């Protein structure tokens, strides 16, 4: 393993030993493959290993977006394909695939509660039924509001255009780079902590196999994806397609979010494009999961960093895990 990333390793070890993160796996790769991979900590009686699987939460989103764009490359749909093509009963003809993947659809989100059918607005329904019945909170394309339910619409468009299940298409994507541990099966993941702070029960979300937040993976799975994207090898999507996904889709739009720092990031198609002042490198794209797992790629540094971990409230001020410290250390090569 490389000793080039001492600062990033020390950062991860410090947070695990300080009990701010229960366990962690840190991975770093470039266009040629893995440069560093290391596991830290023990959670209860489970010691972390580099091949452990972790819940991804919202790191799922750019992976689903890549799945959708593979269908676009095959001429089966476009970014402007309306959701009504897949869900004819959906009441808003202006909502298209690009809106769903950039948080600009206006679709009203909902809180997921309980196993099986989800509860919302006084009734139980499936995710597909929920997106089909969803009202709009704002006019499509005029604002940005982070949204989970919209990703079920992405899954519906993938299925309608390919004639196959969403998870079958997702599996083809993972197989293309040998990411065999990446799937919506979550029985073996590390326990997720911190949900009580938000009234969230991870065991209620994960069985939904939610296309916004339901996948799980090993660090090596995400590193394989990052390596492919850095190498521009076309195994997942062609370089032109990735360029299209990284074009900002939300610049200048009003951001509906109580956290003012969220205004300092754009979204492309599935990818978060942060330009926070705390980041040295503004070429970064990727995503964070609510579990605080990280998947980020820097075109300028030619590196991908993955942090797999499992605490929902790790970035709260009283805990104090600041991911930009890690990103700066990695992409500066320290």
Features:
5-stranded antiparallel sheet, 15 strands, alpha+beta, Beta-lactamase, 334 residues, globular, two-stranded antiparallel sheet, 10 helices
Task: Briefly characterize the structure.
The chain is of the alpha+beta class and 334 residues long.
Rounded to an integer, what's the Rg over CA atoms?
19 Å
Topology as a string of helices (H) and strands (E): HEEEEEHHEEHEHHHEHHEEEEEEH
Mean pLDDT: 94
Distance between the termini: 14 Å
Number of strands: 15
Oligomeric state: single chain
The helix content, as a percent range, equals 25-40%
Helical run tally:
10
- Placed side by side, the strands forming the largest sheet appear as 2-1-15-14-13
Instruction: Quickly count the domains.
Output: 1
Strand content is 15-25%
Q: So what's the CATH class?
A: Alpha Beta
Describe the biggest sheet? 5 strands, antiparallel
The parts where pLDDT drops under 50 for at least 5 residues are 113-117, 119-123
What is the CATH fold-level name? Beta-lactamase
């Amino acid at each position: 393993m490389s000793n080039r990333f001492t600062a990033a390793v020390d950062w991860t070890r410090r947070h695990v030993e300080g009990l701010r993160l229960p366990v962690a796996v840190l991975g770093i790769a470039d266009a040629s493959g893995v440069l560093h991979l290391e596991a830290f900590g023990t959670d209860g009686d489970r010691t972390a290993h580099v091949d452990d699987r972790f819940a991804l939460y919202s790191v799922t989103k750019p992976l689903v977006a890549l799945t959708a764009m593979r269908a676009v490359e095959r001429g089966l749909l476009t970014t402007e394909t309306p959701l009504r093509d897949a869900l004819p009963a959906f009441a808003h003809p202006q909502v298209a695939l690009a809106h769903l993947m950039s948080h600009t659809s206006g679709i009203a989100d909902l809180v997921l509660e309980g196993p099986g059918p989800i509860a919302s607005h006084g009734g139980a329904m499936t995710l597909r039924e929920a997106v089909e019945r969803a009202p709009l909170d704002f006019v499509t394309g005029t604002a940005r509001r982070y949204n989970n339910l919209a990703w079920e619409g992405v899954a519906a468009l993938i299925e309608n255009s390919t004639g196959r299940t969403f998870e079958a298409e997702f599996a083809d994507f993972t197989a293309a780079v040998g990411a065999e541990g990446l799937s919506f099966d979550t029985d073996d993941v590390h326990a997720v902590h911190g949900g009580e702070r938000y009234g969230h029960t991870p065991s209620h979300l994960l069985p939904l196999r939610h296309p916004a937040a339901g996948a799980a993976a090993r660090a090596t799975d995400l590193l394989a994806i990052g390596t492919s994207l850095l190498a521009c090898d076309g195994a997942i999507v062609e370089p032109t397609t990735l360029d299209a996904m990284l074009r900002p889709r939300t610049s200048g739009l009003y951001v509906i979010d109580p956290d003012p720092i969220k205004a300092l990031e754009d979204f492309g198609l599935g990818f978060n494009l942060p330009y926070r002042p705390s980041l040295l490198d503004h070429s970064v794209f990727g995503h964070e999961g609510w579990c605080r797992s990280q998947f980020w790629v820097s075109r300028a540094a030619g590196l991908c960093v993955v942090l797999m971990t499992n605490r929902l409230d790790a970035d709260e001020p009283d805990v104090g895990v600041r991911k930009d410290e890690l990103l700066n250390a990695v992409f500066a090569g320290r």
